[in-house]
Amino acid sequence: MKKPKILVVGDSCIDVYVYGKCPRMCPDAPVPVMIPQETITYSGMAGNVVRNIEALDIKADILTNTEQIYKTRYVDFKTNHMFVRIDTGEEHIARVKDLEKINFKAFDAVVISDYCKGFLEEDDITYIAKNSYLTFLDTKKIINNVFVNNVNFIKINEGEFVKCRGHISQKTLDKIIITIGGQGCIYKGEIFPVQKVDVKDNTGAGDTFLAGLAVKFCQTGDIKKSIEYANKCATYVVQKRGTTIINPNEI
Fold this sequence. Notes:
Elements: E1 6-10, E2 12-25, E3 32-45, H1 46-55, E4 60-63, E5 70-76, E6 82-88, E7 109-114, H2 122-130, E8 135-139, E9 153-157, H3 158-164, H4 170-173, E10 176-179, E11 185-187, E12 190-192, H5 205-220, H6 223-237
Parallel strand pairs: 1-4, 1-7, 2-5, 7-8, 8-9, 9-10
Antiparallel strand pairs: 2-3, 5-6, 10-11, 11-12
């Protein structure tokens, strides 16, 4: 079977994890003293979607910002408790340019991972979806009927859905997959449950879900099977430390 070609479009960042030990409390403030021991970096946001698609043995191209966003997390290694996350760089992200030069129909699917950092505007999403065969969208924007009109499937979480549900049509609603954390997700009123597991880190679970969904749908054309698979992918990574990618042999 021919492997699909997938293009990921959206904001990306560098996820930085500074792991350390916390042997004592600070004498001049009610906070622990952290001694850094290890720093690990990953490609995050849209970059994490790409990492997960490629972990499923599918090649993915990416169209993303050139300016670097850093999300630096300081984490106690023993407990995996995150003390603080420091974000830098996102105020300098430029909007995507020259979309008309890209042949979106050269790809079996386009995955839009829009973290609302400035790389994509609503008009950009409209253009991409109108010129693609198949479009998956994950966005932090409040959804309306206009800019998602040609999008095939939309993945949002429960909080994001609450913000838009009062002003979207049934046509738009029928495209939406609502992730609901440890309960799984909802599509067209049907709940797709997930296995109960001990959650270690939710970071990047939505990216993983999106990657699994797009890959499996390209392979099967069956959205319900794709949702079930995406659930398994997300359930796998939340049991791991940091911004983990899928291991298909363990799904």
